[in-house]
Automatic annotation (TrEMBL):
Belongs to the FlgI family. Assembles around the rod to form the L-ring and probably protects the motor/basal body from shearing forces during rotation. PANTHER family: FLAGELLAR P-RING PERIPLASMIC PROTEIN FLGI, FLAGELLAR P-RING PROTEIN. The basal body constitutes a major portion of the flagellar organelle and consists of four rings (L,P,S, and M) mounted on a central rod. One of its GO terms (molecular function) is structural molecule activity. It comes from the Bacteria. The gene is flgI. Residues 1-35 form the signal peptide. One of its GO terms (cellular component) is outer membrane-bounded periplasmic space. Keywords: Bacterial flagellum, Cell projection, Cilium, Flagellum, Signal. One of its GO terms (biological process) is bacterial-type flagellum-dependent cell motility. InterPro entries: Flag_FlgI. This is Flagellar P-ring protein. It is found in: Bacterial flagellum basal body.
Length: 381
């Protein structure tokens, strides 16, 4: 494919993307603001999940466990495990345990989980086990950040990955066979206390800090429950008076979390993903007067060979000589102008007119930011 055809194709593809962005912006601009339930935009302070972790053994592997010569702590863990059942192992003895692997066991304990309820666990290899497929997790204690045991895990693993290795060192791996899950594999033995029933107030924390949203949440609660019920503490927290009785408080929170609130508009931001070339321009992005020009310089170098043939009956020899062809092409794109308060649709239309590729668009936005014309935060992720 020639350079010209490739450039035209690239322009056509990206023009389609920019057109879709423009259509989406026009649709969003014409749609009414949407209200969200309080439960979708805020969390109740003191009511959150807790992370549990433990270290255990997976047994029953088909020769895909840890190599104890490279991971000696696997043998020590296995020795300690047998000691719990009164099976001593001779000191100093070395042995290979290709069907055993030391693993990390992780779980998330939701708030209000009671003893006897089960939760899912994730099991991942800590050493050099090639696969946990077909293994079974031995009883493992799961501890919280305070060092207390809150659950016990045990059961057969479900491994979505697959790994096959040949005698010559060749290997085929599908997904990650060294990580597995056990649905309902841990049983809770201790409840985590929450601050839900403490004091005469509850606090809602917004998932996205915004003074406007916090004020609107406070106003919506006061309109529903009565003036003076709620007060915005800062850009995140809204404090609400609540009944002291636990049953009444549950019903009270149930009413509050279904109140609909219109969130404040997000800050003006342009997000650029430097790895994928994805660019997202927020609806509040504006551009002050600026003139932009953009041109692309294409250099094509092709290598070939030519044959030098001497004249008949001469003493010369036929020789093969390298030949290099260099072609330089530069696009003469026109300058475009951003007027005062240009919106997202104006930006998309202008950049679409010059057919800039994602990498070129990033350069244009960065230049606008450096010149002070881009009225938004430019964030590169």
């Amino acid at each position: 494919m020639s350079v010209m055809k490739f450039t035209e194709l690239r322009k056509s593809s990206f023009s389609s993307v920019l057109s879709l962005l423009l259509i989406a912006q026009l649709w969003l601009g014409s749609s009414p603001a949407q209200a969200d339930r309080l439960k979708d935009i805020a969390n109740l302070q003191g009511v959150q999940s807790n992370q549990l972790v433990g270290v255990g053994l997976v047994t029953g592997l088909d020769g895909t466990g840890d190599q104890t010569t490279q991971a000696p702590f696997t043998a020590e863990s296995f020795r300690a495990y047998l000691d719990q059942f009164g099976i001593p192992m001779p000191a100093g003895q070395t042995f290979q345990l290709r069907n055993v692997a030391v693993v990390s066991v992780q779980a998330e304990l939701p708030a209000f989980t009671k003893p006897g309820q089960t939760i899912d666990v994730t099991v991942s290899s800590l050493a050099n086990a090639s696969s946990l497929r077909g293994g079974s997790l031995e009883r493992t204690f799961l501890m919280g950040v305070d060092g207390e045991v809150y659950a016990m895990a045990q059961g057969n693993l479900i491994v979505g990955g697959l790994g096959v290795e040949g005698a010559d060192g060749s290997r085929i791996s599908i997904n990650v066979p060294s990580v597995g899950r056990i649905p309902g594999g841990a049983t809770t033995v201790k409840e985590v206390e929450t601050a839900f029933n403490m004091g005469d107030h509850i606090t809602f924390n917004l998932k996205r800090a915004d003074f406007t949203t916090a004020r609107r949440v406070s106003k919506a609660i006061n309109d529903f429950m009565g003036e003076g019920t709620a007060a915005a503490i800062d850009a995140v927290s809204v404090r609400v008076r609540a009944p002291v009785d636990s049953q009444s408080r549950v019903a009270y929170v149930s009413e509050l979390e279904n109140i609909e609130v219109e969130q404040g508009s997000a800050p003006a931001r342009v997000i650029v993903n430097s790895r994928t070339g994805t660019i997202v321009i927020g609806e509040n992005v504006r551009v002050s007067p600026a003139a932009v020009t953009h041109g692309s310089l294409s250099v094509t170098i092709s290598e070939g060979f030519g044959v030098s043939q001497p004249a008949p009956f001469s003493d010369g020899e036929t020789a093969v000589l390298p030949q290099t062809d260099i072609t330089v092409a530069q696009e003469n794109n026109r300058m475009f102008l951003f007027d005062t308060g240009a919106t997202l649709s104006d930006i998309v239309q202008a950049i679409n007119a010059v057919g800039a590729a994602p990498g070129d668009l990033s350069a244009i936005l960065e230049a606008l930011k450096q010149s002070g014309s881009l009225r938004a935060d430019l964030i590169v992720i």
